[in-house]
Amino acid sequence: xxxxxxxxNPELIxxxxxxxxxxxxxxxxxxxxxxxxGHTHAIYRFGLKDLLPDNIVLxxxxxxxxxxxxxxxxxxxxxxxxxxxxxxTAFGDMMRVPGQRGTPLELKAQxxxxxxxxxxxxxxxxxxxxxxxHVVFLAIGFETTAPSTALTLKRAKALGxxxxxxxxxxxxxxxxxxxILDSPGMRLDAFIGPGHVSTVIGCRPYEFVARDHxxxxxxxxxxxxxxxxxxxxxxxxxxxxxxxxxNQYARAVPWDGNQPALKAMSETFTLRPYFEWRGLGSIxxxxxxxxEAYADWDSERRFDIPGVQVTDPKAAQCGEVLKGVLxxxxxxxxxxxxTPERPIGALMVSSEGACAAYYHYVHRQHTAGD
Length: 370
Ligand code: SF4
Hints:
Blueprint: H1 2-7, H2 10-23, E1 30-36, H3 37-45, E2 56-63, H4 65-68, H5 71-81, E3 86-90, H6 104-109, E4 114-116, H7 120-129, E5 134-141, H8 146-159, E6 164-170, H9 173-182, E7 190-193, H10 196-201, H11 207-213, E8 217-219, H12 224-240, E9 245-247, H13 259-268, E10 269-271, E11 274-277, E12 281-284, E13 288-290, H14 299-302, H15 318-322, H16 354-367
Parallel strand pairs: 1-2, 1-7, 3-4, 3-5, 5-6, 7-8, 8-9
Antiparallel strand pairs: 10-13, 11-12
Helix pairs in contact: 2-12, 3-16, 8-13
The structure holds iron/sulfur cluster.
């Protein structure tokens, strides 16, 4: 546990928090977005917000893959699961994501063959074991998980497994950041960049943020000291009137990314012209489809998928929370109709969702003993 201890060292944390206090000019307000849901989770889990001065406001970004998947795509997945010969497979956090017609877990309880897997390779193995069935892998996630889907497609093709396909819902982070930067009324001062995604894409793709938009961008690790150090790096840039991309997470993130992973993705995927993001709307070239070369393993080509368009329940304010306009507890149904046990919105489902993180680490402590 040596490495974790080092990144949670109380003295170093105190020292770094003091440096943040020193750098944050009292007469200025700082709005800093942490893009990644893992960072949002860590910020709440470790109480890092309490170590920051009041004039630093953290905005939780769109980097939680479950949270940005629109309800219509969940319903499309459920429609696939209802086909007689299909076994639908998905990651665990996907199982409780509500579509209009319920969650995958609820449909499973009604008899549909839906199974949780830990990796797309598990889904492929399931297909090999069940040649009379067709196994669909419901793929979600940013560039963090897309390479494992890509490599599974390559293996399926190499082994000639014909009863397996991917329902591809992978999204890419750069267009989402562009959409945020281009949105009217954008008031962010800087970004804490995602750690996991950057282990695949590297830091170079973020250079436009500093070059074209004049905003500092620091790619960060997930431990308390990582995030506080990243904050120091951001504040130093802002104090110096600079805007550049820096890599705080250099122990895991190569500047130019993971080339074999990027190559596997470029061989198996192609960009969709448009994709609907929950809370952010339609963003061009922001999601991946299975490429022509792997068409035989593409669920969208092999099955008639309804292409359901569903608007979120009226009371749900996930979009505002995703854009940083509202904080989780400001949603009208936070903690009442929408809880981690009965989520209405996707931000309450995954532990990386801003609402679930706030609920577990702030709301529950305040209401304990009520
Ligand atoms: S409380 Fe529920 S409905 Fe409201 S923003 Fe959060 S996830 Fe969405």
